[in-house]
Amino acid sequence: MSPQSNNKPGKPGGKEAQPLIIAKTPAEEQRLKLERLMRNPDKLAPIPDRPKEWNPRAPPEFVRDVMGSSAGAGSGEFHVYRHLRRREYQRQDFLDKMAEKVDKDLDYLDKVEQNKQAADERTAKRRKKREKLKQKKLMAKKAKLETKNKKEDDADKSSESSEEEEEEEEEEEEREAEDDAEAPSFIMGKK
């Protein structure tokens, strides 16, 4: 037995004979599976397909042996009827569950759409508020520049009145600072 190490005639002995190991615990079984996968890492790991959903057998289109209410039915007919009835109840339960699942899916999609719409509305409202604040700041800046330019023009006309204007400007800034600060809505320490 030179080239063939296996006991099978006609087969080349490329693989070594593996001893049969029986796993005693689930962890050991998992370890053995991983070892087998890691022996040849280039080989793709088998990934099982998703199991198909159970479907009941469709009701027959043509019933050949219709059971009637006539006398003389054998003792086995009741069992046949019972199995047919059980199968029909299973089918109806399945259809009810499928309808419920479809309803839940539609409710979920509606809720997602409503949440998205509400988020878009909030975003638009906040964007509008930001734009309004930006415009307000821009207008204040322009007004300040205009007053500054006016004062510079006035300063050129009369150098004496510039000191008075500076004092007035300081007073205006103080007033603006006072106006910007909100009055406290409550005073601490008093009851």
UniProtKB/TrEMBL annotation:
Pfam families: DUF1168. Keywords: mRNA processing, mRNA splicing, Spliceosome. Residues 101-123, 143-160 have a biased composition (Basic and acidic residues). One of its GO terms (cellular component) is nucleolus. GO terms for molecular function: double-stranded RNA binding; protein kinase binding; protein kinase inhibitor activity. Residues 161-182 have a biased composition (Acidic residues). Residues 1-22, 35-78, 101-191 are annotated as: Disordered. InterPro entries: Prkrip1. Residues 124-142 have a biased composition (Basic residues). PANTHER family: PRKR-INTERACTING PROTEIN 1. Belongs to the PRKRIP1 family. This is PRKR interacting protein 1.
